[in-house]
Amino acid sequence: MARKRNNEQMGENTTQHKGQVVIVTGDKGGVGKSTFARGLLHLYINKKLKYLAYDSDHRNAQLYRHYNSVKPGVKLLNIFTRGGADDLLIDLESERPPLALVDLPAQSGVFFEEFEKDLGVFDAVKELGYRVTMVSVLSRVKDSVNILRVLHEYCDNRVDYVVVKNLFHGDGDKFERYDSSQTRTKLLSAGAVEVMMPDLFFKPYDYIDEKNLPFSAVLESKEANIVIKSRVSAWLKEFEQNVLVASQLLGLENHAPADQAA
């Protein structure tokens, strides 16, 4: 019930907006940030939603590497260079997609703040009719909580929040630093929604990584064995079920399919 109330509370901030910009971030490389972004993009594609996707993680552009081959592709952004990410706002203004997904580099908080201040991103997207959801993917380390705290202090109530516990790093009740933090208390009181990302076994994960495949291609692959396909299929089902608690904030509701969108 608490999760439902949180989703409804933050939903109050989104009902007057026409679109959603979902920005995925994390404390360091390997936290599972891009895996979550890829899982979410898989759902957008599977549900035939109209979207634009961006990867600003130039050192490890997983979203681009795995999904650029799937129309409409993934555009690279560079938030570390002034003007390098202007295309995001330009595209939102000109194309007006109902959904935009942005995969930020790990530990890019300072650069994101500079990028946001330089362009006035939050005000600009609000003017265009979008609401921003910041997705923070956590591991169990202290840095995860610290970076989430800084993110909340900067963004405050200008965005909505989804906090993702990556179960690769342990069971949901093992995230003790986060669970006992004042940051969690403040976020939940503001309506943040928590999501559990299931752990994908290393063998199918490594297969996908080696082949640079989107998740759907694994299920259709003639090379992948039945165990890999079964594990990926089970992971995708659990992933989708788990993110439903934040479906509105993640852009999975109230958006027309691509073949119906203008």
From TrEMBL:
UniProt domain CobQ/CobB/MinD/ParA nucleotide binding: residue ranges: 22-59
Gene3D superfamilies: P-loop containing nucleotide triphosphate hydrolases
Pfam families: CbiA (PF01656)
Annotated SUPFAM superfamilies: P-loop containing nucleoside triphosphate hydrolases (SSF52540)
Residue runs in coiled coils: none
Protein name per the record: Chromosome partitioning protein ParA
Species name: Aetokthonos hydrillicola Thurmond2011
